[in-house]
Amino acid sequence: MEDLVRELAVDKHARYIVSVEKRKDDFESVVMEHLRMNGAYWGLTTLDILGKLDMVDPDEVITWVMSCQHESGGFAGNIGHDPHILYTLSAVQVLALFDKLDVLDTDKVSNWYNTFHIMFCLIYKVDVAGLQNEDGSFSGDMWGEIDTRFSYIAINSLSLLHRLDKINVEKAVKYIVSCKNVDGGFGCTPGAESHAGQIFCCIAALAITGSLHHVDKDLLGWWLCERQVKSGGLNGRPEKLPDVCYSWWVLSSLIMIDRVHWIDKKKLIKFILDCQDKENGGISDRPDDAVDVFHTYFGVAGLSLLEFPGLKPIDPAYALPVDVVNRIFFGG
Questions:
Q1: pLDDT tens-digit profile of 264-282?
Q2: How many other CB atoms sit within 10 Å of the CB of residue 166?
Q3: Which of 16, 117, 191, 265 could join 131 in a cystine, given CB atoms 3.0 to 4.6 angstroms apart?
């Protein structure tokens, strides 16, 4: 393991993340402009796991995050964009990293889960049921797209804000369970194909709500461990190529259902390390591909889940460092 520790280019990965934020005119920054809030969460959480969060100015970050909040309470991916549930969770998570959730009007944010959807309901003359639909599912924005990702995001963010009472948790759980398939996995909607990313969202939502008893852990664990290929990497569906991001989606789910010992951890660690750019920093989806902040985060987060030495532990359900989660719920 000592040899592997020396292989993790901690300082170069940290400098890479900081440099991406400063390069506002290059291709990567331009194509991510509309989802910069997600990028901020990926990059800043990576820095925290690496023990390098002090490389950024907290006040500058917090000021920008709050400038992305709409009057409705929701957050946009960047200044001048529309609010969406995806970016609202990332904003909450970023503020949590800096112990600054107190700058939020939590009632305003949690009420947004109802108010922005009312606009959709009025326009299309459907019952005003808030962001949570009658069947327990959640929509992502005022246009009404439904996905189990949004169920997880709503449950995660409201839990972090101590506002789970704003939704019908029982209905939310029932909807997630309705998306379970015969292979033990979960899809984005009932009957949709099992996918490792969706499985994480469903399992994490069930974990946060204390509902993991609905999961067939052996059946799901088998499906998940079958995602490991010869290179040691993990894929998201059968017959697909491995991708570093599944080092998070698959691993976290296996940990939450206590089946992580069913994969070869050493081979997965080697796969992640082989995806590093050891000269300039950053991690790619597969060895020798171009790096990006998304895969850098999921690679480092995956190593954290694998208890890689020198990295802060990350919570597999909340996708935040354990000390941050403990501070929110236990004041530690």
A1: 999 999 999 999 999 999 9
A2: 20
A3: 117
Of the candidates 138, 29, 25, the residue with the CA atom closest to the CA atom of residue 89? 138
- Tracing tokens 């939020």 back to the chain, one arrives at 104
Domain that holds residue 306: 2-330
DSSP string covering 185-254, please?
-B-SSTTPPP-HHHHHHHHHHHHHTT-GGGS-HHHHHHHHHTTB-TTS-B-SSTTPPP-TTHHHHHHHHH
Q: Which two tokens stand for residue 191?
A: 């009957």
CA torsion 134-140-141-142 (nearest 10°) is -30
Between CA 69 and CA 7, with CA 300 as vertex, the angle to 5 degrees is 150
Residue 262 pLDDT greater than 80, yes or no: yes
Total domains in the fold of the chain: 1
Alpha-carbon span 185 to 215, nearest angstrom: 9
Percent of the chain with pLDDT over 90: 76
Q: What is the mean pLDDT of residues 97-126?
A: 68
| pLDDT on residue 118 | 44
Q: What is the pLDDT of residues 46-86, one digit of tens each?
A: 999 999 999 999 999 999 999 999 888 889 999 988 888 89
The stretches of the chain forming alpha helices (DSSP H) are: 2-7, 10-22, 27-31, 36-50, 58-67, 85-97, 106-124, 148-160, 169-178, 196-208, 217-225, 246-256, 265-274, 293-305, 322-330
For residue 115, pLDDT over 70 is answered with no
Quick check: helix, strand or coil at residue 5? helix
Cα–Cα distance measured from residue 298 to residue 15, given in angstroms and rounded to the nearest whole number: 17
Q: What count of other Cβ atoms lies within 10 Å of the Cβ of residue 123? A: 10
- CA–CA separation, 309 vs 306, rounded Å? 9
Q: What is the CATH number of the domain that holds 258?
A: 1.50.10.20
